[in-house]
Automatic annotation (TrEMBL):
It comes from the Bacteria. Keywords: Transferase. This is GNAT family N-acetyltransferase. Gene3D superfamilies: 3.40.630.30. It comes from Agrilutibacter terrestris. The lineage of its organism: Bacteria, Pseudomonadati, Pseudomonadota, Gammaproteobacteria, Lysobacterales. PROSITE patterns: GNAT. One of its GO terms (molecular function) is acyltransferase activity, transferring groups other than amino-acyl groups.
Amino acid sequence: MSIVVRDVREHELDSVLALNNAAGPAILPLDATRLRHFFDHAEYFRVAERDGTLAGFLIGMGSGSQHDSSNFRWFRERHPEFFYIDRIVVASRRRGGGVGRAFYADAQSYAEARYPHMACEVFLDGTNDPVLLFHGSFGFREVGQHVMEETGVRAAMLMKPLCSYTWVHETYGDALPNVPWLTRPRTPVAHVAPRATGTCP
């Protein structure tokens, strides 16, 4: 059956928490309070549904967020405007079935109308080559490395230029058309002048 990507619902937070904490060392654990904070403040918090059950989730936010992650701060100290993917989790039984690509396509569709870049990180624990390959095949490139002060884990810091942003921004500014796939941000976003950190064809 098809994959449906949609906004998370409040009653699903317990299921999202269980998915996150069963994901293994590639994803930092969460508690209910932290997850609730994401629900209340994250600009983008969506789940994937397949065969009537949750197959995963993705949480993201813009560079104007007050997010307290050291990885997010690393990007913000170096790049003025970007959409940051804090975490993406796919249920183990659904991995390899296209859920991750569906999420990234949906997140990019959202982000490219608002930000010139997407940013994320991948932990460098010696077993994440498939994850790095996945991101590389989706257009992400390493722009540095960072040791997280919270955990001591080293992460590859990845960015991807969103080539449609300049045209959308110059054509529509902040007045995007009112169409379903251009869902408005869940919280206000601060916009600053973009600065290129990658190239587009």
